[in-house]
Amino acid sequence: MQQWRTTALTLLPLGTMSMLVVLFVVFWQAIGAQTTGLKGMQERIGELEQTLQENPGLNVQMLEQQLKQLQRNQRELEDRLSRMARQQTDMLQLEQRLMQQTRRGDPQPNTNPMEPDPLINPATP
After folding, report:
1. By the 8 A CB rule, do 93 and 104 touch?
2. pLDDT (tens digit, 9 = 90+) per residue, 72-116?
3. Containing H/E element for 120?
4. CA atoms within 13 A on the CB side of 5
5. What is the pTM of this model?
6. How does the average pLDDT of the chain come out, rounded?
7. CA atoms within 13 A on the CB side of 54
8. CA-CA distances (angstroms) from residue 7 to 15, 16, 19, 96?
9. Residue 105 DSSP SS3
């Protein structure tokens, strides 16, 4: 039992030191990758700033492109919202008709897919 403790106390610092070395190497590599990424971003920002200084009209052109894209996105969102509002209104109307039918004791709506549903497409006599 005493020998096991002696062996464990000898191996524990060695294992711990090995893990710390591996951890240090991993951190070192991560810092290097991050540094490389930051340098690349700084170079790209410098290039963009230089391009904008050389051609001031480009800045306005880029802003106009961004504005057009934002306007397109806004129109698409407005269209999507109006479609959703119409769907919600249709669903509420259908729910109200179903509730009225249920209160009056009318038969349940047709569930046969081959026959047209009178609630969706009411036939006019």
Report:
1. no
2. 999 999 999 999 999 999 999 999 999 888 888 765 555 555 655
3. none
4. 2
5. 0.39
6. 84
7. 6
8. 12, 14, 18, 80
9. coil
